[in-house]
Amino acid sequence: MNIFVLTGAGVSAESGLGTFRDTGGIWAKFDPMQLATPEGFASDPRAVHAFYNLRRRNMIEAEPNEAHRALARLGRDLEAAGGRLFLCTQNIDDLHERAGASPVVHMHGELLKIRCEACGHVTQWPSDLTVETPCPACARAGGMRPHVVWFGEMPLHMEEIGDALMAADLFVAIGTSGSVYPAAGFVAEARAAGIPTCEINLEPADNARLFDTGRYGPASEVVPAWVE
Ligand code: BJW
To answer: Taxonomically, which superkingdom (predicted)?
Structure first.
């Protein structure tokens, strides 16, 4: 059995990392157009660095929860049975990896990586990033940015994701509002290909009607129950 799982911010909510669009979420406190667009970064890189430095520190202090651990178990169990879990996350945190999942495909990038806008070099970066940080490859300063996907930018690994989706026997979306494309469109693509679809969420998302089935409640309870 091949299962494609798409996770969103809801899977990390019980680890203490904020979601984006819930009441009191990240976009209620911060303006996405200033902090999560290339234009926002060009006009005020210091503000963007401060936002991601804060989130990087929060992430390093956070711990994986039972939902992350259950998905890591599911991956091992499927592999032992000759199948595969394709774990695709919109999250930039590393909680799936720290729970033992491997591989994890980060379609919106990773908070622990930075990228040079001049030469494209990507490097691990566990500490604060500033406008003065030089590129470890080309030594230029001023062009390092978080290796994350902002609005208007192309998400990562799309070819691999498309192939895995079409090879899946089941598509499951966990803890995502289904409001950001192209991830929000995966359920329709799966349906069109005749693949069964399931939503796991605190409550039905805006696109819940597109799923064949739904399981609702906190991810740390519903995901382990679904995996067992
Ligand atoms: C729980 C829970 C618990 C709570 N247990 N559950 C088609 C139509 C319309 C617009 C577009 C379109 N195609 C593209 C666009 C534009 C845009 C877009 O989608 N805009 C929409 C807002 C309308 N998309 C893009 O720009 C994307 N790029 C693109 O399409 O490129 C194409 C292109 C073509 C040619 C040239 C160039 C480009 C890129 C999108 C990048 C998104 N980036 C962000 C920031 C990443 C870095 C960072 O983290 O700062 O990604 S925005 C933010 O939203 C982040 C998330 O990954 C993403 C999704 O959010 P998510 O995970 O769904 O979180 P929430 O908060 O929305 O939902 C949480 C859910 O959890 C809720 O449902 C809760 O109920 C639930 N929950 N607690 C279980 N305990």
So the answer is: Bacteria
Q: Does one domain contain both 103 and 120?
A: no
Q: Do 130 and 223 sit in the same domain of this protein?
A: no
pLDDT tens, position by position, 7-39: 999 999 999 999 999 999 999 999 999 999 999
pTM (whole model) above 0.95:
yes
Give the strand pairing for 170-174 and 197-201.
parallel
Residue 92 annotated as binding site: yes
- Phi and psi, residue 107, nearest 5°: -70, -20
Q: Is residue 24 within 6 Å of ligand 1 at its C-beta?
A: no
Mutate to test the pocket of ligand 1, among 49, 181, 210, 215 (most ligand atoms within 8 A of CB): 181
Q: Which tokens belong to 62?
A: 């956070």
Q: What is the pLDDT of residues 122-137, one digit of tens each?
A: 999 999 999 999 999 9
108 is annotated as an active-site residue? yes
- What span, in angstroms and rounded, lies between the C-alpha atoms of 110 and 217? 27
* 68 & 83 share domain: yes
* Predicted ipTM of the assembly: 0.95
The domain in which residue 30 lies consists of 20-61+111-148
